[in-house]
Amino acid sequence: MDLSTLTIAEARDALRKGELTSVDLTDAYLTAAEASDALNAYTTKTPEQARDMAAAADARIKAGDAPAMCGIPIGVKDLYAVEGVATQAASNILAGFKPQYESTVTGNLWSSGAVMLGKLNMDEFAMGSSNITSAYGPAISPWRRAGDETPITPGGSSGGSAAAVAADLCLGATASDTGGSIRQPAAFTGTVGIKPTYGRCSRWGMVAFASSLDQAGPVTKTVRDAAIMLGAMAGYDPKDSTSANLPVPDFEAALTGDIRGKTIGIPREYRVEGMSETLDTLWREGAEMLRDAGATIVDISLPHTKYALPTYYIIAPAEASSNLSRYDGVKYGHRATLAQGDGITDMYEKTRAEGFGEEVQRRVMLGAYVLSAGFYDAYYVRAQKVRTLIKRDFELAFGDGVDAILAPATPSAAWGLGEMQTDDPVQMYLEDVFTVPLNLAGLPGVSVPAGLNRQGLPLGLQLIGRPWEEGDLLNIAGALETAVGFTAKPERWW
Amino acid sequence: MSIDIDTARRVAHLARIRVEEERLPHLAEQLSSVLDFMEQLNEVDVDGIEPMTSVTPMALPRRKDGVTDGGIQDKVLANAPDAREGFFAVPKVVE
Fold first, then answer.
1. How far is C-alpha B50 from the chain's CA centre?
2. pLDDT recorded at residue A203
3. EC number(s) (chain B) (predicted)?
4. In chain A, pLDDT over 70 holds for what percent of residues?
5. Catalytic pick among A22, A45, A77, A202
6. If DSSP codes are grouped into helix, strand and coil, which group holds residue B74?
7. ipTM of the complex model
8. So where are chain B's domains?
9. What is the number of structural domains in chain A?
10. Is B68 within 8 Å of chain A by CB?
11. Which of A123, A159, B13, B76 has its CB 3.0 to 4.6 Å from that of A128, i.e. a possible disulfide?
12. What pLDDT score does B60 carry?
């Protein structure tokens, strides 16, 4: 059995049948992770814990107690607090931080029997689209352009998660999405990434970026795996006051493959200038495939789409400036060396200047500005009003009978490291144009591989669903996945 | 340019981030570029629109106002850069 090509569903079935042990499976992935340093996907490896967890999982399976993720080796985004394991959100300000508690999402996964291989790279505090803001240096995509060795970004912020899944360094990975940080890296690496409805997963123990937008989700190889892993991560948690007190349906059971009678909306505002021709073609073909599978395709309008980016880049930094005020050099992480006579304000200012990277500093300051006296109404309150209108656009479309919306996940394929003009933050922010509206509206969205561009890099399509209807959304995504039949894998060079 | 150097200095201080004088012009330029981009929101008619306070229509749950945790001083202090005698230690705050 080639263990590296297994999906979570296949591994689970083989484990339950006794054809495979978690110890063997885990060893194979630890070996693959060990040989993957050129990708810089893992920031911390936890082989001893992995072997202990695998042995415990094998015992559970033997005893007939095998929940969905039992014995499945996964990677964890560095954003999740894991008790006793370095958790830095890829920031120098959290250097040396070892949580004394467990995040609810990882706790749920461990209860379900999942095995932890290590922590995965990301943009600092999840602020970025290409992993270049990571304190560990960027994760590198296993994908390359045909005949070209330029290192390619796996996207961000969950770039380590996407790179690790695409390179078969784990069977699935936790990720998080504030403005597209699950869906964009999934699209860039030919993997599947779902951001569930806001409130479906607990945010307890996730390093906070923008609390009204942050949501946990998995990156996996297939839609079925996304259904299995999301089911194990999700659930009500009294420790997160925005966590929804709703039962978690069996997402995998929703994957019937039957989408007859479903109505899929194609939003005209997502046809932006400068979108690649290949992407446009794949989008049209995707819609045709869903029609061939029995869905009705309708054109829809989401008129406030163009305002989603400026709205997002007010709200997210505002929340970040508040959330990141906790990094003060007192309770945990880095503290600057102080000069004789330095007071407590010097300590705060020097610590934060040394500990935060440039992009994080920029966003914290931007947030402080839009929340400051005299500007609060002009920026922040106005943005929250526009946010209401953006959400209303989706509600009207769903009210008209649309079951899901099909759009590209990103305006282009992944770029080479250093190719993006990073000195102009706005250029960088434009990459999030198709993903941020969902976070503002709290809606679930999934990115599914759609094909390769002319240079051989993956492109993804995004399906946007009704709130709390992740099962239905994944079923439509599954139908698209089957019709596309994406089988490309990066050639191993690392 | 919407942000001048004095404003950039003030914002850096509000955010408690030390920015050296020579870096302020560049910072002002970058913050201005982002704020200029946000000006588009002024085109939107938001008359009579409520600002969003919760993305999912649910009431914030309440719990009993009681002690639910505690007695974990060691854990609380475990990651502190400077902890002494059961406290977080910081530079002198009052003279």
1. 24
2. 98
3. 6.3.5.-
4. 100
5. A77
6. helix
7. 0.96
8. 5-42
9. 1
10. no
11. A123
12. 83
**Nearest-CA distance from A313 to chain B in Å?**
8
Residue A272: its pLDDT value, please? Answer: 84
Tell me whether residue A344 is in a domain. Answer: no
Please give the pLDDT value at position B1: 57
Which phi and psi (to 5°) does residue A192 adopt?
-105, 135
B81 → closest Cβ in A335, A352, A442? A335
* Structure token digits, residue A75: 């990677």
Q: How far is CA A190 from CA A153, A166, A371, A454, A486, in A?
A: 13, 7, 39, 15, 8
- HSE at residue A370, side-chain half, CA atoms within 13 A, is 32
Residue A245: which domain range? 3-259+445-484
Q: Per the residue annotation, which of A141, A181, A202, A447 is the catalytic one? A: A181
Q: For all residues of chain B together, what is the average pLDDT?
A: 93
Q: B49, A385: Cβ pair inside 8 Å?
A: yes
In chain B, the residue whose alpha carbon lies closest to the alpha carbon of A331 is B80
Residues A388, B50: C-beta atoms closer than 8 Å: yes
Residue ranges of A 147-176 with Cβ closer than 8 A to chain B: none
User: Contact A134/A164 with Cβ under 8 angstroms?
Assistant: no
Residue A276 banded pLDDT, cuts 50, 70, 90: confident
Distance from CA of A426 to the nearest CA of B (A): 6
Residue-level pLDDT at A81: 98
Residue type, A14: A
Span A348-373, average pLDDT: 96
Question: Does residue A317 lie within any of the structural domains?
Answer: no
Give the model's pLDDT for residue B56. 87
Give per-residue pLDDT as tens, A105-149: 999 999 999 999 999 999 999 999 999 999 999 999 999 999 999
The answer to the question of residue A283 being in a domain is no
pLDDT at A456: 97
Residue A425 counted as domain residue: no
Residue of B nearest to A327 (CA): B16
pLDDT in the model for residue A302: 98
Question: Among all residues of chain B, which has the CA nearest to that of A304?
Answer: B44
> What is the Cα–Cα distance from B66 to A412, expressed in whole angstroms?
52
Which residue type sits at A377? D
The string of pLDDT tens digits covering residues A60-91 is 999 998 999 999 999 999 999 999 999 999 99
